[in-house]
Write a structure and sequence with these properties.
The complex is a heterodimer. Chain A is an alpha+beta fold. Chain A contains three helices and six strands, in the order βααββββαβ. Classes of the chains: A alpha+beta, B mainly alpha.
Chain lengths: ~120, ~425
């Protein structure tokens, strides 16, 4: 079963990250590389990406309309999507176990969402 | 002349035989598997154009062996360059003669050091002879994911020290159980995805049946392997009736039973009858028996629900699980009436195993619908539609929620349910 693990950031988490020393940052990034390595080894990783700041994105006003910057004037106070994992694993319990290894989980910024599948109710 | 489809079928049959022939000479699973893949790809290009060689299996073994030696040489050269040391690895002990190579190969691909997703991918490639691209399309994941799964699985097998040989007899039951489970997963994956876009996709359920047949031939005395094969046949028989043209699901009670595949039902039933008479009962046999009872009813109202309930009572003891509990409750409702079913459901959902399970609402909606309580059924269908993890199921539940509106016909209770 597939799950998307969403990692959010907010001004508070951003501040903490910025306050880190170089060593602390390296340690934080190593948590991610270790996780990626383990998920690759277990065959559970489909894709993971970190996202640019929302200020670099665009939001469409409509299919024929123009695109406007996705970040509004109050960008600095809101929560935004900072990265994601798409994993293929045994079930919600395993997906939660994976998500719990993400440092941002400590701040309540990590979300696990099941991907809809095509399963039917027979068998 | 041989068409590409004919060549493909032949290659898939020969793949595990060629791999095991190589493994008998050098037990390096990872390299042998790569070499066989390359030989298969070469054959898939050459044979349809140039015709089959006189001895296709011999051709593949020769081509794969050459490739394996090339790989070995370049690997050795690389090591020499890198380390400037020619240290020969200690010779591998010769593999003990296997009772059956395909079985040994299946057991290796379903090795306990691998995750279920990796076991599935490796089995489909090494035993099923599918390409990485075919596996990716079948499993609905990117090709790179499958390639990585397979190469990492092979590394892990190597690291675990597993060899191409039969496990000790004491470990065998557990290892064979792992193989059964992987084949079950492959079947389910195919059966599940059949309502999705099927274009250019390998039929995984057909592949699972083919591999389970092979396992059954090797272990004819294993009642659960026979039970699994029967379950697959009896379930797959309903495939032509279970989706509409637009891909939406048709519940069992509404399927056009004339579309069911009679030959598969006959084969599954015969296999099951023969197995039940001689082997100790197990969960796959019980599930097959339930499928057989459904399959033998010409009309939904002919379904022998008391028999199904008795089978679920057994299954609940042997292999308890949320789906068994819920299906058993549906059977209770069909035998004793929907109100009894709803009472059991209320009791069951208080237990931790079922609390919060996304199908509880779907079953409640169904039972309320049977009881003629349209309003409550509509609300439960809406809730169930919000909680399901399946797209076709969501569409189905939404349509049921809409149908439970004020004009809905009452008294569906005498219509059989799935």
């Amino acid at each position: 079963m597939k799950y998307v693990i969403l990692i959010h950031h907010n001004p508070e988490s951003q501040k903490i990250w910025e306050s880190f020393s170089a060593d602390e940052r390296a340690e934080g990034l190593k948590v991610y590389t270790d996780l990626n390595e383990d998920l690759a080894a277990s065959g559970e990783l489909i894709v993971t990406e970190a996202l640019a700041y929302p200020s670099e994105g665009l939001r469409l006003a409509g299919r024929e309309g123009s695109a406007i910057p996705s970040d509004g004037p109050y960008a600095e106070v809101k929560e935004y999507l900072a990265g994601f994992y798409l994993v293929d694993c045994d079930g919600m319990d395993r997906a939660t176990e994976i998500a719990a290894r993400i440092p941002e989980a400590d701040m309540g910024l990590v979300e696990v969402r099941p991907v809809m599948d095509l399963a039917a109710f027979e068998l | 002349m041989s068409g590409p489809a004919e060549v493909e079928g032949l290659l898939r049959d020969l793949a595990p035989q060629v791999l095991t022939a190589l493994l008998r000479r050098t037990p390096d699973f990872a390299t042998c598997e790569d070499a066989v893949q390359e030989a298969l790809l070469a054959a898939a290009v050459q044979w349809p154009a140039e015709g089959l060689p006189a001895n296709p299996k011999g051709w593949l073994i020769t081509t794969a062996s050459r490739r394996r030696i090339e790989m070995w040489r370049s690997e050795t050269a690389r090591r020499r360059r890198e380390e400037a040391v020619v240290a020969l690895a200690p010779p591998e002990p010769p593999p003990t003669p296997a009772v059956d190579d395909t079985l040994t190969l299946l057991l290796l691909c379903c090795h306990p050091s691998l995750t279920p997703v990796s076991r599935v991918a490796l089995t489909l490639r090494a035993v099923g002879g599918l390409t990485t691209a075919e596996i990716a399309r079948a499993l609905l994941v990117p090709e790179a994911t499958v390639a990585q799964r397979i190469s990492r699985a092979k590394q892990r097998i190597r690291a675990s020290g597993a060899r191409f040989r039969m496990p000790p007899p004491a470990e065998l039951p557990e290892r064979v159980a792992a193989v059964r489970h992987v084949l079950y997963l492959v079947f389910n994956e195919g059966y599940t995805a059949s309502s999705g876009s099927a274009l250019h996709r390998v039929e995984l359920s057909a592949e699972a049946i083919r591999l389970t047949r092979q396992l059954h031939e090797r272990l004819p005395g294993d009642g659960e392997v026979a039970g699994l094969l029967a379950l697959m046949l009896l379930t797959d028989a309903r495939r032509p009736a279970r989706t509409r043209q637009d891909g939406s699901l048709v519940p069992l009670a509404e399927q056009d039973r004339r579309l069911w595949t009679a030959a598969a039902i006959a084969e599954g039933t015969a296999l099951l009858t023969e197995t039940l008479a001689r082997a100790p009962i197990g969960p796959y046999q019980l599930q097959a028996a339930i499928a057989a009872v459904h399959d033998e009813a010409a009309r939904p109202e002919d379904t022998d629900w008391p028999q199904i309930l008795a089978l679920y009572d057994h299954l609940r003891v042997l292999a308890p699980g949320p789906m068994v509990t819920l299906n058993r409750i549906v059977a209770v409702a069909m035998v004793r009436g929907p109100r009894d079913g709803l009472r059991e459901l209320a009791g069951a959902e208080a237990e931790p195993a079922l609390a919060g399970h996304h199908r509880v609402d779907a079953v409640r909606a169904h039972l309320l619908d049977l009881a003629g309580d349209r309003e409550a059924a509509g609300a439960a269908y809406r809730l169930a539609a919000r909680r399901t993890l399946s797209l076709p199921e969501r569409r189905y539940l939404e349509s049921r929620a809409a149908a439970a509106g004020p004009t809905h016909v009452q008294g569906r209770w005498d219509r059989a349910a799935q």
